[in-house]
Design goal:
The protein is an alpha+beta fold and 483 residues long. The chain has 11 helices and 20 strands. It is 30% helix and 23% strand. The strands form 5 sheets. Strands 1-4-6-7-8-12-11 form a 7-stranded mixed beta barrel. Strand 11 and strand 12 form a beta hairpin.
Length: 483
């Protein structure tokens, strides 16, 4: 045991000294270093769906204990110390389904022995044990080179604009495991219950309409669920789900579904605004994923004497691989049988909530998108590209475009999506006077400072500079296109 501790201590000192000596060669983003006990790497086994189900996932992905440090410019920001169950250290395992099985850059889940805010936000309420490392690469046929590194960023920005109750935060990090460079990652809050995440009472529940239910030990199905999916648990933990607890939750979900399918009064059961926000985010992003788009639902509490004391909510949004792949509504908006939205959009009360939400955010959404992406670019512009060069030493076919290029491409596509939604919203009976009913403005032209229209030019082909965005209501805005 002393030999193991000495080895880990030496590895920590070596990493620290290297980071001090050559931190100028490391990009100025945090360096996350993990040394596992005995150098054991997290392993997994690929598993395929049984007959009648769908998907590819992983199993036998057990946690491996170890020590983790986070440094920046040679300064130690965090040290988990040596692993001691429940006292110090951390554990790491492979995560994901198809991404876990096939991604060259392996995604991981990290579980700290003691709560800590790895994003260093200066507020103890952000401390948590559960964190994830997500791959930088996203395959997407709609993007240049059929890849992107920032679709998670776009999803996060849109989620905040729509005022989703909780949007997981992230930071870019470089990762070393057992002395080997693993690339640049998203270090992100995991989808879990807890303070500053999905807030629940002890009696509440947090579930997922899960395509990969067949790979979980505990699940349940409802009467109207697609046969390919089942409900799995985020809270309570599987070990805490007794038959009694499961029966109560299953009964509540079946009761809600029965009212939905009978076109009854849903107001005691679901928070319309929460459901509307979730689907509007996907509609703005144009996601093309009905089966696996991470449909999370939660209820703050469950009191048997008053089961309607809180309402069922949707969120958070997660997994943006299919962003921009739909040129209409998001696929789940209209897909029958996979989830509840095709029925919700046949209800006037839900449509009214959805349209009113669009009306609230529409006047400033273009400016909000521009500001969100510009702030992100300002924070990461130079360091991202520098770090991506390091990342390419391990993954040479990834990150071919600069961050500025990617930001402009995403902004262009988001502007196209807003224009598309302006038209699609007329399907809900507001086509006669959309400007009046929605207080709606939409982009009609982009001109340079010489007055030349450049609307037909892709954003990433525009020269850096100031442009005038002209809207249908006669207003103009100056917008700065960066390098």
């Amino acid at each position: 045991m002393k030999h193991i501790y000495l080895k880990s201590f030496i590895a920590l000192i070596v990493t620290f000294l290297i980071s001090i000596d050559v931190y100028g060669q490391w990009p100025d983003i945090p360096l996350l270093n993990i040394e596992t006990v005995n150098g054991e790497m997290p392993t997994y086994t690929v598993i395929y769906a049984p007959e009648g189900c769908s998907g590819v996932s992983i199993t036998d992905n057990e946690y491996v204990p170890g020590r983790m440090t986070v440094t920046l410019k040679g300064e130690i920001l965090y040290d988990s110390k040596e692993y001691a169950k429940g006292e110090s250290g951390m554990r790491i395992k492979r995560r994901g389904n198809s991404t876990g099985a096939y991604m060259n850059q392996h995604p991981y889940k990290i579980k700290l022995s003691k709560k800590y805010d790895l994003l260093e936000r200066g507020d103890k309420s952000f401390k948590h044990k559960e964190w994830v490392l997500l791959s930088m690469y996203t395959w997407n046929v709609k993007m240049t080179n059929q890849e992107s590194n920032i679709l998670n960023v776009a999803g996060s920005i849109v989620s905040k604009i729509v005022h989703q109750e909780w949007t997981p935060e992230f930071e870019f990090v470089n990762v070393m495991i057992n002395g080997e460079y693993q690339g640049m990652y998203y270090l992100m809050e995991s989808v879990d219950s807890g303070e500053k995440r999905v807030v629940l009472d002890d009696t509440g529940f947090f579930i997922e309409d899960d395509t990969f239910w067949w790979n979980e030990a505990v699940y349940f199905k409802t009467n109207h669920q697609n046969t390919n999916v089942g409900y799995t648990y985020k809270y309570p933990d599987d070990d805490d789900v007794t038959d009694s607890i499961q029966n109560v939750i299953q009964q509540y979900m079946n009761e809600f579904e029965s009212v939905l399918y009978a076109n009854g009064d849903l107001s005691p059961y679901i928070d319309y605004e929460s459901f509307a926000k979730w689907i509007l985010i996907h509609d703005i992003l144009g996601t093309d994923d009905a089966a696996g788009c991470n449909r999370f639902l939660y209820k703050y509490d469950f009191n048997k004497s008053n089961p309607y004391s809180s309402k069922l909510k949707m969120g958070p949004v997660w997994d943006f691989d299919s962003t921009f792949r739909s040129e209409d509504w998001s696929t789940i908006h209209t897909t029958d049988s996979w989830f509840y939205y095709s029925l919700l959009f046949k209800r006037d009360d839900f449509i009214k909530t959805y349209v009113n939400l669009w009306k609230q955010i529409r006047p400033t959404i273009l400016e909000d998108l521009q500001n969100g992406l510009n702030n992100f670019l300002e924070k990461y512009n130079n360091v991202f590209d520098e770090s991506m060069k390091l990342h390419q030493t391990k993954y040479p076919d990834e990150g071919k475009e600069t961050l500025s290029f990617q930001v402009n491409e995403v902004l262009e596509k988001l502007i196209q999506r807003i224009t598309t939604l302006d038209v699609l919203m007329t399907q809900y009976g507001y086509s006669n006077n959309i400007n009046k009913l929605y207080n709606n403005t939409y982009l009609i032209d982009i001109v340079d400072l010489q007055g030349n229209s450049v609307k037909t030019i892709d954003f990433h082909h525009l020269m850096p500079g100031i442009y005038i965005f002209r809207y249908n209501d006669g207003t103009n805005k100056k917008v700065r296109i960066l390098n």
